[in-house]
Amino acid sequence: MTGRVEAVCVSGSDLLPLPGKRPSTTGIRKRPVGGRVAVLDETLDGDRQVNRKHHGGEGQAVYAYAAEDAAWWATDLGRDLPAGSFGENLRTTGLDLTGAVLGSRWAVGSALLEVTAPRIPCANFARFWDVPDLVKRFTAHGASGAYLRVLQTGDVGAGDAVEVVHVPDHGVTTGLLFRALTTQRSRLVEVEPALDVVPHKDRDKLTRRIAALVG
């Protein structure tokens, strides 16, 4: 399977202010950048994640969102949603990110990335779009995009092919994990075969929740 990178986006130093909130800024506002962008161990060069408890780092170094899913939202909301509008680092085309199997590996530019988890929407996302019920709507729709782990550093750029070079056979997708974490929590037991792929910071919590479900 092969897709393509439409745009590479980073926050830069111009962070979005959050008056009256802590932290007082967010890196959710990304903008496309030209040329080649270095893929570092836990981020893209020039990108910032302010709240590292929930964003960025190991297992969430890069966030991808599909152009096809962005087009659905643009129609639903009646507004343009250019690359970076979802806080994504990679705007992709030609790939089903909701159906992406956790642990799938993508060769992009000279980097190698691994699908690890869906993105769970937060209140800052709703504030960024100025859509008060966005978290509810985003959860209901379920096209979450995909977080990616960096297995091999390198560089990426708009126009790069995204070659899916490995797909595990357990069948646990980002869409399944998203539902298990939001609206269908009894399905969390189905995620167990992919626990060794999710971000390290989430593994113990998910393991305990699965244990509680199975008694």
From TrEMBL:
SUPFAM superfamilies: PK beta-barrel domain-like. Residues 31-165 form the MOSC domain. It holds the Pfam family MOSC. InterPro entries: Benzoxazolinone_Detox_Enz, MoCF_Sase_C, Pyrv_Knase-like_insert_dom_sf. It comes from the Bacteria. PANTHER family: PROTEIN YIIM. This is MOSC domain-containing protein. It comes from Klenkia sesuvii.
